[in-house]
């Protein structure tokens, strides 16, 4: 007996409709298209830089108001200034511990795999003069003045505290909540442009630097990506497993943000939307508002791994033996200087230059070997930074007792564009 198949076309339409209206699908297609254009028409691909850069610049316009509104509303709505201080102290302590793990794992894997044990005569050189000509001493003041995110964070905390004591606090909160809805609605509209931004960013990267530049330093590239994966799935995965949360479910939940970062090579491109998703997932607004912006300055796990591995790579490349004490010194220096590798293009190389200058054993000119492939490793750094800050937000939220058991599927529906 044949049963009617009336529901089949309807189900099929639903499946195709879901796929074609899924932002992740279009971002992935855009990244693939960018790679193909960069490889086969590099001249045209390089001109796409303006497309990716414009998208990131538009997203950056939302960073300041979102951070400001989220923190001010979180603090004034919470009404407990002791809790604000407690969250801040917990965050900084967590950041330092996890960053130290990131630095240590970077050094350990680099020593085990030895990516610098290659013939440097065939490597592509670029001019590192702008980073090595005048390495600067680390300055907390300069770091603060060059970091707008940190400035906004501080201003928002101060205003949030003052608003707590304001006699018309409720009226002010109502106005700020309306402003917040307008800003997030605007962000939702802009995120429709994410595939275009990812296409432009990836096309420019491949067109400008070329996949062939990866071959001489493929061992370093592979080691960096392997180390990032080990850190994400073993260190961060273990932290989440202890809290009874799956790292795989979290990655699936934030896949759109990960692809946007992959395409644009900028973790800032995903900052506003990751704050929305973490709040929808179950993290409290005050924790999200305080931890994410602070983490973008002080919890750069991917950058820390890259910096520590780069120092060991250059030591191996120049056959420089480092004692155990010198390795500990490098980790100690990077624990401080890695905090300054945020917010400014090329700041990672400036940090590397100042670190190499401080230990007086590895030629600073060695940065010339890294410049050719740095752009291809920036995606790994940015993605690891994003995942690290997401995990940090969950950890601090749980420690404050403000975290609801995550319903990833329901949270995804709440944030779908």
Automatic annotation (TrEMBL):
<protein>
    <submittedName>
        <fullName>Aerobic C4-dicarboxylate transport protein</fullName>
    </submittedName>
</protein>
<dbReference type="GO" id="GO:0015366">
    <property type="term" value="F:malate:proton symporter activity"/>
</dbReference>
<dbReference type="Pfam" id="PF00375">
    <property type="entry name" value="SDF"/>
</dbReference>
<dbReference type="InterPro" id="IPR036458">
    <property type="entry name" value="Na:dicarbo_symporter_sf"/>
</dbReference>
<feature type="transmembrane region" description="Helical">
    <location>
        <begin position="15"/>
        <end position="38"/>
    </location>
</feature>
<keyword id="KW-0813">Transport</keyword>
<dbReference type="InterPro" id="IPR001991">
    <property type="entry name" value="Na-dicarboxylate_symporter"/>
</dbReference>
<dbReference type="GO" id="GO:0005886">
    <property type="term" value="C:plasma membrane"/>
</dbReference>
<feature type="transmembrane region" description="Helical">
    <location>
        <begin position="91"/>
        <end position="113"/>
    </location>
</feature>
<keyword id="KW-0472">Membrane</keyword>
<keyword id="KW-1003">Cell membrane</keyword>
<keyword id="KW-0769">Symport</keyword>
<dbReference type="InterPro" id="IPR018107">
    <property type="entry name" value="Na-dicarboxylate_symporter_CS"/>
</dbReference>
<keyword id="KW-1133">Transmembrane helix</keyword>
<feature type="transmembrane region" description="Helical">
    <location>
        <begin position="189"/>
        <end position="211"/>
    </location>
</feature>
<dbReference type="GO" id="GO:0015138">
    <property type="term" value="F:fumarate transmembrane transporter activity"/>
</dbReference>
<feature type="transmembrane region" description="Helical">
    <location>
        <begin position="149"/>
        <end position="168"/>
    </location>
</feature>
<feature type="transmembrane region" description="Helical">
    <location>
        <begin position="58"/>
        <end position="79"/>
    </location>
</feature>
<keyword id="KW-0812">Transmembrane</keyword>
<dbReference type="GO" id="GO:0015141">
    <property type="term" value="F:succinate transmembrane transporter activity"/>
</dbReference>
<feature type="transmembrane region" description="Helical">
    <location>
        <begin position="223"/>
        <end position="243"/>
    </location>
</feature>
<dbReference type="GO" id="GO:0070778">
    <property type="term" value="P:L-aspartate transmembrane transport"/>
</dbReference>
């Amino acid at each position: 007996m044949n049963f009617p198949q009336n529901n089949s076309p309807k189900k099929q339409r639903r499946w195709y409709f879901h796929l074609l209206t899924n932002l992740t699908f279009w971002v992935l297609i855009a990244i693939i298209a960018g790679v193909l254009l960069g490889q086969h028409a590099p001249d045209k691909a390089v001109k796409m830089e303006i497309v990716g850069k414009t998208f990131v610049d538009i997203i950056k316009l939302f960073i300041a108001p979102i951070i400001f509104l989220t923190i001010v509303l979180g603090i004034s709505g919470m009404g407990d200034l002791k809790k604000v201080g407690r969250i801040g102290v917990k965050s900084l302590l967590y950041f330092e511990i996890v960053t130290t793990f990131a630095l240590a794992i970077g050094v350990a894997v680099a020593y085990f795999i030895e990516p610098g044990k290659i013939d440097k005569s065939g490597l592509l050189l670029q001019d590192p003069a702008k980073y090595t000509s005048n390495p600067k001493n680390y300055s907390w003041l300069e770091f603060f003045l060059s970091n707008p995110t940190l400035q906004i964070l501080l201003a928002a905390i101060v205003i949030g505290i003052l608003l707590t004591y304001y006699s018309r606090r409720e009226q002010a909160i109502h106005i700020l909540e309306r402003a917040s809805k307008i800003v997030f609605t605007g962000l939702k509209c802009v995120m429709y442009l994410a595939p275009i931004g990812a296409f432009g960013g990836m096309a420019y990267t491949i067109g400008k630097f070329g996949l062939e530049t990866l071959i001489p330093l493929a061992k370093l590239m592979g080691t960096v990506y392997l180390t990032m994966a080990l850190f994400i799935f073993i260190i961060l995965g273990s932290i989440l497993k202890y809290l009874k949360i799956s790292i795989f479910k979290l990655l699936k939940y934030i896949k759109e943000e990960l692809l946007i970062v992959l395409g644009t090579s900028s973790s800032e491109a995903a900052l506003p939307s990751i704050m929305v998703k973490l709040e929808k997932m179950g993290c409290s607004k005050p924790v999200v508002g305080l931890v994410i912006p602070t983490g973008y300055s002080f919890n750069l796990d991917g950058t820390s791994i890259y910096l520590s591995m780069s120092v060991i790579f250059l030591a191996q490349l120049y056959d420089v033996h480092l004692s155990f004490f010198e390795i500990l010194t490098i980790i100690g220096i990077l624990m401080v200087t890695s905090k300054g590798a945020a917010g400014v293009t090329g700041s990672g190389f400036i940090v590397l230059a100042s670190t190499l200058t401080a230990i007086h054993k590895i030629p600073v000119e060695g940065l010339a070997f890294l410049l050719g492939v740095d752009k291809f490793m920036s995606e790994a750094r940015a993605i690891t930074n994003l995942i690290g800050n997401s995990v940090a937000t969950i950890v601090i939220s749980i420690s404050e007792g403000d975290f609801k058991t995550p319903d990833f599927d329901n949270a995804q529906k709440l944030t779908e564009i």
